Amino acid sequence: MKIVLVAGARPNFMKVAPLYRAAAAEPGLTPVLVHTGQHYDDRMSGQFFRDLGLPEPDHYLAAGGGSHAVQTAEIMKRFEPVVEQEGPAAVVVVGDVNSTIACALVAKKMHIAVVHVEAGLRSFDRSMPEEINRLATDAITDLFLVTEESGLANLRREGVPEERIRLVGNLMIDSLHWNLERGREAGLKAPAGPYGLVTLHRPANVDSTEALSPLMEALGRISTELPLRFPVHPRTRDRLKTIALPEGSRIEYLEPAGPVEFAVHLASASVALTDSGGIQEETTALGVPCLTLRDNTERPVTVELGTNTLAGTRPESILAAWESHKRNPKAGRVPPLWDGQAAGRAVAAIVENLQ
Ligand code: UD1
Question: Which of 117, 158, 265, 308 has an alpha carbon within 20 to 30 A of 172's alpha carbon?
Answer without folding.
Answer: 158
